[in-house]
């Protein structure tokens, strides 16, 4: 039945019946289309153009509504709608087209012509480009550290673990139809070759990663491995904010390059976080980031059985420019005797990757990214 209906729909032409008082012609060489309303003398009319719609109300009756598809470079479609005492004509402009002021010309015996010239989009595109499908969500995965910076070192090296997990997350998300951008896909950092100073490389590297949170991307997840002086284990997930907890602050300084550089970048990020808390749109994004952190943590714990160290806010530099939900995951402690050894196992890293991917998918399917402000 549905097939039959679609066939009928294809066979029945629509939009052929323009009323006798309305016609138009494209003049591609001159770059405009002329719409002419040829009306009996004394017919009332008024018009209003706002944005991409030209509205003209004429005092002539129309038996029923019509939609016309003019196949024109300037007019996408024309709707004729019966309205009180007449007809409203709505001309929907193609992107880039615009309407000039209307003017009146004399018509044949007993009539006058109301003329609208619509300018074609620049470049005179004859055929409008095909309407693209809504794009697949784009997820940025950031494997922390790389190249000269190994990150935390214990039973494993942080930079190798984060890269391996990121590659696994990428495969899992791509299998679900998402697009994934990695900040790095091998053992390197994002600073140019000629920069020799370690701190300067680190600063450039972190800044380049942080800037991958803009553009047409939907989510950003930075992956890291923890280390602690006193034995500690478990998973914690962060979104951008300030912290009063000294241990969290020390972690942020370490992840922001450590030492003097780490302190400076942490301070800069704290002031970004302060501004974000005073900005409604940024605040909304922080709420979505927190929600993403909670979903990822929940899934990670479910997939691994690891210890829950909670969701917190902290001034991580890689999160500072984000206008999309952005989080930093600490998947475990490199120097914990059990957890460090688990991180060295491929099947455990696969569980971590599955948890991160599941958290991302939960949030995307819940539509959180769709309403996140830009
Ligand atoms: Zn790290």
TrEMBL record:
Gene3D superfamilies: Zn-dependent exopeptidases (3.40.630.40). CDD domains: MurNAc-LAA (cd02696). InterPro entries: MurNAc-LAA_cat, N-acetylmuramoyl_amidase_3. One of its GO terms (cellular component) is outer membrane-bounded periplasmic space. GO terms for molecular function: N-acetylmuramoyl-L-alanine amidase activity. Keywords: Hydrolase. Residues 207-361 form the MurNAc-LAA domain. GO terms for biological process: peptidoglycan catabolic process. This is N-acetylmuramoyl-L-alanine amidase. It comes from Oceanithermus profundus.
